[in-house]
Task: structure prediction
Amino acid sequence: MSAIPMKKQNDAQLKNVPLKLLQAHPQNPRKIERRDVIEAIAAQLREAGEFDPAHALIVRPFEKGYQIISGHNRAIAAGEAGLKDVPAWVRDLDDAGAFMQLILSNAQSELHPLERGEHARIAIDETGMALRAYADEIHINEVTVRKWKYAADVAAVVPRDYSTLLPYMKHLSEIHAALPETWPKWVEQLLEEQWTVDELRDELKRHKAEKTAPEKDRYLIEEWESLSAKSRQQIVERTSTKEFNAQDSTSIEWAQWSWNPVTGCLHNCPYCYARDIAERFYPQKFTPTLLPATLKAPANTNVPARAEHDLGYRNVFVCSMADLFGKWVPAQWIELVLDQVRANPQWNFLFLTKFPIRMAEFEYPPNAWLGTSVDLQARVKNAERAMANVKASVRWLSLEPLIEPIEMNWSIFNWIVIGGASPSSQTPEWRPPRRWIWDITFNAQAAGCAVYHKDNLAMRLRNYPGAVETERDRAPGPFHYLKVIA
Result:
């Protein structure tokens, strides 16, 4: 190509630039190569033998060459026509200026709206530019730009050839209204079913429940199971500032924190303090319920410095207001709780159940202490059989309330807690006889168990000459609610 006179236009200079020094801009909005346009330009160049400066490229100095701002197809055509250089307006542009000039310089070059949307997506999502400011910058109506961007948002996450999506610009913009996780599924269905825009809108309306999960703080089992998998995921991933409940009494003094992501129970034990509390204070009463916001409490609560010297301040009683392993509890609820246990090794999580057989069905991290409740001899057989199969760093046994003398294989357990019963709506206060407590204590310690006495036991003798304190040999009638475990 013959040399062209040096010309200036505003802040640009027109000069011949060697093709080998040209680089395509990585954020060029043109995604589809127009072979018909390239071939037509190449044919014209072969016939003319030179490149008309009236169609000069726009470039900027970049590294040791030049970066194309406008004229990507013309540069390809010039190479195919055998030219060595092309006329180009050379402009000094920083990265931001070059990026905006990409769309402005291509305004008249028949960019597809989806390509324009990709440029808008990068400007707004990756560089932080406000949509209105972007629309003003390129002199396009804000509503139009938003539709372009919506379509490009969807196209960016769909594993499909870009050219396949070009005819579905309006469809993609409509799909943006669905959950982002579902966009690939909707595009695949669109391509398979070949819906019109109106048909797609109708389908989206039928699945509107997937758009936003219900804004609720608690879910009964039936409500939870009616939700889609996506809605459930969205619910449990919501941010929360909930923390553990710090204990203000000695009712569970072996753990100074309680955590109740699940509440409620269907056992109907007569001495249950949790049921009395729930019936009084919980909107859902004692119906089994998931409280998703409470799931984040382990990460939101700091381990106190006192935990270094007092293990109780590192211990968290899980579901003090429920039996997490009750046969009615959805397995997903249990796994949601265990996910948090695994993610927060700074705490010890203490589980307690009257369904130890189901407890044995799950896998646990080292910071899970697994326990079962035995109040009557009728529960012993199941407890021994199930807990022998539970793999845990600590296996423990709660004998609270201790309603009758208990004999069992203490060697299965690492730790035993013994307690009486506070008054409930159906049962009076009960303190088991000392000889029951000491028999269990001596036998358990001989088997290698650590033993913890609750402060609701009558462990102190306070006899005087001629006035010997007596103890009942049998718990009051309402405690004897269970005789046989099938």
